[in-house]
Amino acid sequence: MDQSLLMDQVSASGQKDKIRRLRRRLQQSETFVMPEVWDVASSRVMADAGFEFIGTSSTSIGWCLGYTAQERIATDDLLTMAARITKGFETPVNADLEGAAGRSLEEIKYAVNAAIAAGCVGITLSDGGRNGSHGILTIEEMTECVRAVKAATAEAKMPAVITISTEAFLLGPKVHSPFETTVERSEAYFAAGADCVMVPGVQHLQILERLAGVVDGPLAITVGYSPAPEIKAFAGIGIACITFGGSLLRSLLGNMRLKGEELLAFGHFNHLDKAIPEDALETLLR
């Protein structure tokens, strides 16, 4: 990781204030949306749109860097992008560190320390990796990872928000009961020191309402496909935070491809009608 990217980050007191803001937000009853981005420009655009918190998406960063689903994203690639995003950025940033499967406790603690040093206010770590592509750790192995993350934040004297993502619903037939597995893992992760548990792979209201009713702690979900319920529906069943995973980038690329096909088919330049003016983008990047 380029250590020069860690210079001129937010002050320790300012960072702690942002951490408290995110922690309070998770504990409030009002659901909030945290878009997950992949570079500096996308983070600035989402913040300018009005989002209070921004997250990085390891999936999206991996795609942008050419990683396939079978490859693990280099930890330093994730950290370098997180550091670039947080530099000079007032909006609190949560760093997605991808999955714990196949990674040592030393590497995980290094990643947590580097994310905190970069100015991030929270980290997300999955019990698998790349949306179920690399299996899932045993509950005992993952709780050990959670304790290592908690210890790293204590050593750094920066109580970053810890979100642990469980991939039970992404593994299909490999898990006998995704619901029961998610409940068991959520309880274990909270007991080990997690502040929030993320459950990607499910956006069915009845399932999530059952989960929220039995899991004692803030739940985050990933809306990855359409159609999806509205925010107020998720709020009504007690979901704390809504994220997008890689779906925001996929949506953008889908629209980009459509514009390209229209250009080739009809020869017009309607793709420019909603483009951000260059001077406005330059302003956002300052």
H/E element sequence: HEEHEHHEHEHEHEHEHEHH
Provide a count of the helices: 11
Distance between the termini: 23 Å
Number of strands: 9
* Helix content bin: 40-55%
Identify the overall geometry.
Answer: globular
Global Rg? 19 Å
Give, in spatial order, the strands making up the sheet with the most strands: 1-9-8-7-6-5-4-3-2
What's the main sheet like?
9 strands, parallel
Regions with pLDDT < 50 over 5+ consecutive residues?
Answer: none
What is the chains' assembly state? Answer: single chain
Q: By helix and strand content, what is the structural category?
A: alpha/beta
Note the beta-strand portion. 5-15%
Average pLDDT number = 92
Question: If you had to describe this structure to a student in words, what would you say it looks like?
Answer:
- The chain is an alpha/beta fold.
- Helices cover 47% and strands 12% of the residues.
- It has helices at 12-27, 40-49, 58-64, 75-86, 105-117, 139-155, 178-192, 205-214, 231-236, 247-266, 278-285, and strands at residues 32-33, 36-37, 54-56, 93-99, 122-126, 161-165, 196-199, 219-222, 241-243.
- A nine-stranded parallel β-sheet has the order 1-9-8-7-6-5-4-3-2.
- Helix 9 (231-236) links the parallel strand 8 (219-222) and strand 9 (241-243).
- The two termini are 23 Å apart.
